[in-house]
Amino acid sequence: MNKIPFGPTYEEMLNPKKMLKKVRNKALKALKEDELDPINLFNITWKDENNEVRKIVLPKELTGVDANIVVMLGKGFPSGSHKVGPAYSTLIEGCVDGYIIPGEHTILGPSTGNFGIGVSYICNLMGYEAVVIMPDNMSKERYERIQKYGAKLDLTPGSESDVILTLERTYKLKEDPKNRALAQFELFPNYRFHRYVTGNSAIEAVKGIGNGRIAAFCSAPGSAGTIAAGDEIKKKFPECKIAALEPYECSTLANGGRGQHRIEGIGDKMCTLIHNILTTDFVILIKDEETVQGLKVIHDGINALKELGIPEETANYMRELFGPSGICNILGAIKMAKYLKLGPDDNVVTIATDSFDRYNSVIENLNSRYLEVEDFVVRRWAQDIFLGQKDDYVYDFRRKDVKQQLFSQKEKDWTKFGYSVEYLDSMKNPEFWESEYSKISYYNEKIKEMR
Ligand SMILES: Cc1ncc(COP(=O)(O)O)c(C=O)c1O
After folding, report:
1. At the N or C end, where does the chain have fewer CB atoms within 10 A?
2. What distances in angstroms separate CA 333 from CA 46, 229, 329, 341, one per listed residue?
3. Residues 204-210: contacts with CB within 8 Å, 24+ apart?
4. Taking a C-beta distance cutoff of 8 angstroms, is the pair 342, 63 a contact?
5. In CATH, 55-77+199-396 is 3.40.50.1100
6. Three-state SS for 190?
7. What is the DSSP string of 204-254?
8. Is the CB of 223 under 6 A from ligand 1?
9. How many angstroms separate the alpha carbon of residue 119 from the centre of ligand 1?
10. Whose CA is nearest to atom 7 of ligand 1?
11. What residues contact 435, with CB distance under 8 A and at least 6 apart?
């Protein structure tokens, strides 16, 4: 049997205590000292050195709602975002299946950036050549990081169908038998990682907060991997509502819209193959400019935040935690808390996929677009965007006839890539998703056996 690169199982990513102690300690040391040491694969987890989920419960002076908004923080993952998890999971499953062979295959990473950063990083650690295929209109920090980790870039035009163009390009490159795609939009390791690792971490994250349950889970889909966490949360807390957030300017799920927008990493202008529509209860639209202004408030608005009653220490701590999609998720969580009329016992969980480190240029761009970004403007944004966020643009997708709209969107997006209507129809049965999920134990065993 081939030996595959040494890396964690799904079980170990959820619960690093199950790793050999010396491996975990070595990995934690490398996280601080040498991010390119392959042992960092064992840092792919939501847990910190105390085995606690990295999270923040947002100050109510900011959210203006009684419910507790718990944001899980992707910043602590190696490469700076949780997207490294699906990248690793897809690669390692490919190795287990014998589909990806070390030394033989070049890895393709279709992405809007963070998955590409994850792919470049993982391939560096695991010794693969990599090509990241992504639109040419993302923040410059993304391209720099991808190149820093060693992958080549293959850029497609940023346009109203930019992600679809990256997919088409990936399909073209896949014709070369040397290439293997980590197809995040259509392969189920992304679903498995988030349902098992992120979902169960979310369940742990709310222990001791409010009633210890989760009333709503909000996630803005890019690949719709993260939103799979909701499937696991719903199993544990059946009352939990799952909300998919989209840019108001690109309302593909809500009504087929496909406009350009500023929230990098989400709103990819399709219903991805791995999106479990059955469990998506609400679709919520968030105005893209509010996410960028909200980022400005959190990053540069210490005075405004202090005036809201947020302690200086908390305001300083929050500065680096979010990017625009994290702010989008927070605004969606506020909308959900208001819409569902949640109280102080209730928890809403959401995600910060990455953090500020790749968005300086986004704030520079905002500063250049506004005549005034002084304290008095930021103060008004803090009031309007967070405290004044309304429960509008919330669409209920629980009814069968409304859900059909999403199934039709998925069919439109994926039959053109060769998926049959029959296969797409099989996804309308919950069994499909349970069956994909149940493969986790097989991969856990195989990874242990083969590494
Ligand atoms: C910044 C950012 N936020 C959110 C997402 C969406 O996450 P997912 O692809 O799991 O839906 C991504 C995906 O790349 C991202 O890069």
Report:
1. N
2. 20, 15, 6, 12
3. 204/53, 205/46, 205/53, 205/55, 205/70, 205/72, 205/349, 206/68, 206/70, 206/347, 206/349, 209/57, 209/68, 209/70, 209/347, 210/67, 210/68, 210/344, 210/345, 210/346, 210/347
4. no
5. yes
6. helix
7. HHTTTSTTSS-SEEEE--SSS-GGGHHHHHHHH-TT-EEEEEEETT--HHH
8. yes
9. 14
10. 222
11. none
Structural domain boundaries of the chain? Answer: 55-77+199-396
3-state secondary structure (DSSP) of residue 451: coil
* Ligand 1 center–CA 18 separation, angstroms: 28
User: Which residue reads 């950036």 in tokens?
Assistant: 113
β-pairing verdict for 55-57 and 241-247: unpaired
* Ligand 1 nearest atom to the CA of residue 326, by list position: 3
Ligand 1 touching residue 113 (CB < 6 A): yes
Residue 361: C-alpha distances to residues 63, 199, 290, 320, 365 (Å) = 26, 32, 17, 14, 6
Which stretch of DSSP H or E encloses residue 131? strand 129-135
Residues facing 282 on adjacent strands: 243, 396
Q: What is the DSSP letter of 382?
A: I
Total-model pTM: 0.97
